[in-house]
Amino acid sequence: MKIHWLSGFLLIVLPFVSAQPEPLAANPPPAVLLGYSSQNAVLQTQWEGKFRDGISPANIRESMRRLSARPHHVGSAYDKDNAEWILSKFREWGFDAKIETFNVLFPTPKVRVLEMLQPTHFRARLQEPAVASDPTTGQTAEQLATYNAYSADGDVTAPLVYVNYGNRDDYEKLERLGISVKGAIVIARYGQGWRGVKPKVAAEHGAIGCLIYSDPKGDGYFAGDAYPAGGWRSSEGVQRGSVMDTDYPGDPLTPGMGATANAKRLALKDAKTITTIPVLPISYADALPLLSALQGPVAPEDWRGALAITYHIGPGPALVHLHISSNWDIKPVYDVIATLHGSTDEGQWVIRGNHHDAWVNGADDPIAGLAPMLEEARVMGELHRQGWTPRRTIIYCAWDGEEPGLLGSVEWVETHLDELQKHAVAYINSDTNERGFMLPEGTQDLQNFISGVARDVQDPETHLSVYERSHLYSIAKAKDAEERGDLRKRNDLVVTALGDGSDYTAFQDFAGISTLSVEFGDEDDGDQYHSIYDDFHWYTEFVDKDFAYGRALSQTAGTAIMRLADADLIPVDFSPQADAIEKYEHDLEKLLKDKQDEFTERNLELKEGVFKATNDPRRPLLPPHAETVPPFINLAPMKNAIVLLKKSAGRYSLALSTYNSKGSAALSAQSLASINADLLRVPRLFLNQKGLPGRPWFKNQIYAPGAYTGYGAKPVAAVREYMDEKKWTEAEGQVPQVAQVIDNVAAGIDRAAQDFESALTQTH
Ligand SMILES: [Zn+2]
C-alpha cells in the first residue's frame, strides 16, 4: 500500500518528526521491518516508496550509453574519462566524492601468434570483426586485442591435445585413455569453472601452452541465433579474461597491502599469480581448423561440443605454434568513492559497489550493473535534499580494474582494512544485470533481510513481487522432492555462498564483512561476455531493452542500502546463517561418505576384474588406480561448535521476534549503541589470521573460493580442499581451528543476544 498523496507533505514534516506521525493512522502497513522500531518502520516505508518511485529507466539508459560509448579498460583514456564523469555525477548529487588511485601491474598484448604448422598450415585470425549495424564495434584503435591477462610470455611449438574443459577430472580421463599432455599444447573449451584454472591444471600436467576457445554448444549458435541476427556469440567472438592464479586476488605485486604509490612491490618474477605457461583465448572460427586436424581417440560423448566435426583428442597430428608476449606495465586504477554521511551512526558504514572498467565497451559487464547503481545514488541525493539523512553512512564505490583481477576493490580494501573492520556493516555488490530472477548470494546473516527487501520490489514483467517470483523459480529448479519440500517451508530466499569472482571478494574473504550480491538474470536472449559485441547496441536490442530490470536492480539494491542504513538495529538475523553452516558441515560428511563408497566399490571392481572384462580391446582404457579408502574423520569439534552457534543464533532470533511482536518499541540510544557494536563485530569473527592452508590471503574460514574452482564457493575450504586432495589426515587437522572460529562467532552472537535481552527488559 503506497501512500502517494503523502510524499509532498512528508518532505516538510519528516526531519522534525519525533512522535508517531499522524497522517498514517488510516490503515498503515504492518510495519515489521527487521531491526526497526514500529515508528521508524512507518517513516522508512514512506521514504523507500519515494525512492523506488523515483528510479528512472531513461536515466539508466542514458548512463549506459555514455559509459559504454568507447572501450574503457584499465589504462585507457576512456576509463579515466568515465571515472571523472562518475565523480562529477556523485558530487552533483550531493555526495562527498573523490577518486582514489592505485598503481597496479596490468599486462596488455604485445605479440599474439597462433598457427598450425602440420598437417596443413593455418594462421589464426585472433580478431573480432566489426558489425556494420553496430556502431561501436568498429572502434578498432581503442579496443584491447583478444588475450588472457596475466598469461606468461612464451614461444612454444608442440602437438595439440583436446582436454575438454581442462579440469582435474578431465585429466584423470586422459590418463585412463593413455594420453599424456607432457610437452603438448592443450586446447580447452570455456565453461565449467574459472578460466584461470585451465592453464594452471594444464601446467601441473606438463603442458607447455594452453588455448581456450568458446564452443558454440555452451556459448553460440547452439543456444540461439548468433549476432547480429540474434544475441548469441558469433563464430569470431572471443571471450577475453584474466587467468590470474587463485593464491590471492588484486595486484600481483602487492599481495595483502594497498598498491599505493610508495608500496613495496615484488619483482615481476616473484609474482605468484602469473601463469607458468602461455595462454590464449580464441573464437570457434579459429578453433575449428585446429580441432578438425586432431586424430587419436574420439572424445567421450560428454566432451563433444556443437561444432560439425567428430571431436578427437589427439595428440596431433596437429602441430601448433603459439607465441605470446605482453607489455608488463604498471597502470593507474581509479576508484570513485562517494560518501553520504550518516546522522546518529556516522561511524557505521553501509557500502555498495560495482566496477566501471570493462574489457571493451562492456554494456552488460559492468555497465548494466553500474548504471542502475548510479541511479540509486541520484535518487538518494534527491531524497537527501528533501530532508532524508541516513542514520548510518552510505558509501558508493565505482571500482576500476575488476576485470583483470579485482584490482580496484582489493587494493582499496587492503589499504583501508583497519577502518573497514571498525566501521563496515555490509557490502552489496552487483557486476552485470539482465532480465529474469534475483537469486541473492552472500552471507546468510542478511538472508532474512534481503528477503524482506525482495518482497517490496515488483518484478517488472510478471508484476509478482521479486520475492515471490524468485522463490517459485527456486522450487521449479530444485533438484529433488526433498529440496522442494524444504523450499516450500521457507519464508525467505536462500542466499547461496559466494567464493571469488567479483568485487565482494576482499570484503568477505579478506576483511570479514557481510556481503550480498544482487543482480537479475537467467532469462537471457544472448551473451557476448568479454567481447567487443557486449555494447549498447547489442544490449538494447537483445537484453533489457527498456531497462525495466535495470530499474528493478536499482530498486532492490537501493532499498537494501537505505534499509541497512536507517535501521535502529543492524538488520541481521543469524539463524539462517547457522543453518547454512550446519549444512556445510553435513556436506563434508556426505563428501567423505561418498568417497568411501566410491573407492570401496572401485577397489572391489578392480579385484573382480570388472575393468579388464569390460574393456574394449580396440579402444582400450587403462583401469583406474586403486585408492586407499578414506578413514573416518573426526568432525565432532565442528558439530559441537555448530550446536552452540545454533543456540546463540536462536537466542538472538527470539529477541528479535520479541522486539517485533511488542510493536518494536524504541530502544534507548545507549542500548542500540551497545547491541550495534556487538553486531558489527560478529562477521569479523569468521576470520583466522593464518588464513587458509597455502592461501594465507583468504582469512575467512567459512566463506571462500576453491583453489581449483576459482569463482565457485567452497565453504569450509580449509577442510574441504584437503579432502579433494585425498589428504584425509590434513583435512582432519583443520577441523579444530574451524571449530574455534565457529565457537567465536557463537560467542559474539551470544553477547549481542544478551545485550538485546537486557535492552528489551528495560523497555517494559
Ligand atoms: Zn564484471
What does this structure look like?
Strands 1, 2, 4, 5, 6, 8, 9, 10, 11, 12, 14 and 15 form a twelve-stranded mixed beta sheet that branches. This protein has a two-stranded parallel ribbon with strand order 3-7. The model is unreliable at 1-31 (pLDDT under 50). 40% of the residues lie in helices and 14% in strands. It contains 23 helices and 16 strands. It has helices spanning 7-13, 38-54, 57-67, 77-92, 168-176, 197-204, 284-292, 363-385, 402-405, 407-415, 417-423, 447-455, 466-477, 481-489, 505-510, 536-542, 548-566, 575-608, 610-614, 636-661, 669-681, 717-724, 728-762, and strands spanning 96-118, 122-123, 148-149, 154-162, 185-189, 209-213, 241-242, 279-282, 319-340, 345-355, 392-399, 424-429, 436-438, 441-442, 515-517, 520-522. With 764 residues, it is α/β, with parallel strands linked by helices. β10, α8 and β11 (392-399) form a beta-alpha-beta unit. Bound molecules: zinc ion (ZN). Zinc ion (ZN) binds next to α8. Zinc ion binds next to α8.
List keywords for this structure.
764 residues, 40% helix, two-stranded parallel ribbon, 14% strand, binds zinc ion, 16 strands, 12-stranded mixed beta sheet, 23 helices, alpha/beta
Which helices and strands, and how do they pair?
Layout: H1 7-13, H2 38-54, H3 57-67, H4 77-92, E1 96-118, E2 122-123, E3 148-149, E4 154-162, H5 168-176, E5 185-189, H6 197-204, E6 209-213, E7 241-242, E8 279-282, H7 284-292, E9 319-340, E10 345-355, H8 363-385, E11 392-399, H9 402-405, H10 407-415, H11 417-423, E12 424-429, E13 436-438, E14 441-442, H12 447-455, H13 466-477, H14 481-489, H15 505-510, E15 515-517, E16 520-522, H16 536-542, H17 548-566, H18 575-608, H19 610-614, H20 636-661, H21 669-681, H22 717-724, H23 728-762
Parallel strand pairs: 3-7, 4-5, 5-6, 6-8, 10-11, 10-12, 12-15
Antiparallel strand pairs: 1-2, 1-9, 4-9, 9-11, 13-16, 14-15
Helix pairs in contact: 2-8, 2-17, 3-8, 8-17, 12-17, 13-14, 18-20, 20-23, 21-23, 22-23
Bound molecules: zinc ion.
Zinc ion is lined by residues 355, 365-366, 402, 431-432.
